[in-house]
Specification:
CATH architecture of the largest domain: 6 Propeller
Oligomer: single chain
Strand order of the largest sheet: 19-20-21-22-4-25-24-23
Radius of gyration: 23 Å
Number of domains: 2
Structural class: mainly beta
Strand content: over 45%
Helix content: under 10%
Mean pLDDT: 81
Low-confidence stretches: 1-50
């Protein structure tokens, strides 16, 4: 049963948290978020949860990335990207300046080794290789190789949970390794409602879950580290559309997380860019959703998921109970991605209500 909640107007609005989710139901002609932008009115209608949640994204910032780097491992640590690259004769371990993409430190692997995933644990960097059944441990500061270890499977992705290293081998398997002995302690198999999830590639530990690229897809899956159960799918299709490609790029592969700030970065093999992204729940086919609303100076901004084929625009009224809604800007065509519409400064003022209107495909 739906519920509606609101706040009475008593004074100018105090900006709400930018990640406040404001869902609403899909209506045939217009969907409304009624907000008194300067007095704090917010009406919320909860949506039913999906068995396996899906997430879409908004690009926060774009950084340069070496388009010759065949990214196999990707980590953010103390303000720098650490990257493991692959291909025979080209594999490296490198430290990269994020804002410029400049390689600040690098060491090459032997020509007969194909570099794979990396992880930073305490003061060491661990790096896998693909089919050679051998991995390396480096000093974090100097990149001096201090140890070699072996494993029976292929090596694909690598991360850690603060206690154990976690390794993928291109199947649905995830292997938990003791970082000192590098012996396997346990393993899980990633699975969802439709069965096992194979081709797990680059890994990242984020807020108690394993995030994994799925090879040859534009998806990242979220996995319960105790059971292997799928807890979400992140759909990153269209991510490269925002940058110019001078040469062909390969697949999405590379997840880096900054736990102190919550920033999330993704990239891919031979990609010219690293993207900082923000994730939002993706509505099902019969739903739409306001994701955030906030004041930005003298402007009021609504970020929402814009479904493909639908048209959206903002309206305002000082007396919404009487109607009188006026269009504030040109219409925007939905493209199945997150977007933001902003109320022009001339429209903001005391006792104005704003709403997001939409029209379905004809």
């Amino acid at each position: 049963m739906s519920s509606i909640s609101g706040f009475k107007c008593g004074h100018r609005i105090r900006p709400q948290p930018s990640r406040k989710a404001v869902p609403f139901r899909n209506r045939p002609i217009v969907i409304i978020l009624a907000v008194l932008a300067t007095c704090g009115h917010l009406f919320e209608i909860p949506l039913a949860a999906s068995p396996v949640p899906k997430y879409t994204y908004r690009i926060v910032e774009t950084f340069h990335h070496d388009s010759d780097a065949f990214t196999q491992g990707f980590v953010f640590h103390n303000g720098f990207f650490y990257e493991g690259t692959g291909r025979y004769g080209e594999s490296t371990l490198r430290r990269v300046e994020p804002t410029t993409g400049k390689v600040l430190q690098s060491v090459s692997l032997a020509d007969d080794l194909f570099g794979e995933g990396i992880a930073i644990f305490k003061d060491k960097i661990y790096q896998l290789t693909w089919r050679s059944h051998v991995g390396f441990v480096y000093d974090l500061k100097t990149f001096e190789r201090i140890r070699t270890f072996h494993y029976p499977t292929e090596g694909w992705g690598l991360t850690h949970d603060g206690t154990d290293l976690i390794m993928s081998d291109g199947t649905a398997g995830l292997f938990f390794l003791d970082p000192e002995t590098l012996e396997e302690k346990r393993r899980i198999r990633a699975h969802g409602p439709s069965g096992t999830i194979n081709q797990l590639n680059e890994l990242e530990w984020i807020q108690g879950e394993i995030f994994a690229n799925v090879w040859q897809t534009d998806q990242i899956v979220r996995i319960n580290p105790e059971t292997g159960e799928l807890t979400g799918r992140i759909l990153l299709d269209g991510l490269l559309d925002s940058v110019k490609l001078n040469e062909p790029a390969d697949v999405l592969n590379g997840i880096a997380y900054a736990p102190d700030s919550g920033r999330l970065f993704v990239t891919g093999k031979w990609w010219p860019a690293v993207f900082e992204i923000e994730l939002f729940p993706k509505p099902s086919d019969d739903q739409a959703r306001i994701l955030t609303w906030q004041l930005q100076g003298d402007r009021f901004a609504i970020t929402f998921y814009a479904k493909d084929g639908f048209t959206y625009w903002l309206q305002a009224s000082s007396t919404p109970w009487k109607g009188g809604w006026k269009d504030l800007q040109a219409r925007l065509a939905g493209n199945d991605h997150v977007t933001t519409l902003t109320v022009p400064p001339t429209s903001t003022g005391h006792n104005y209500f704003f709403r997001l209107a939409k029209r379905p495909p004809r």
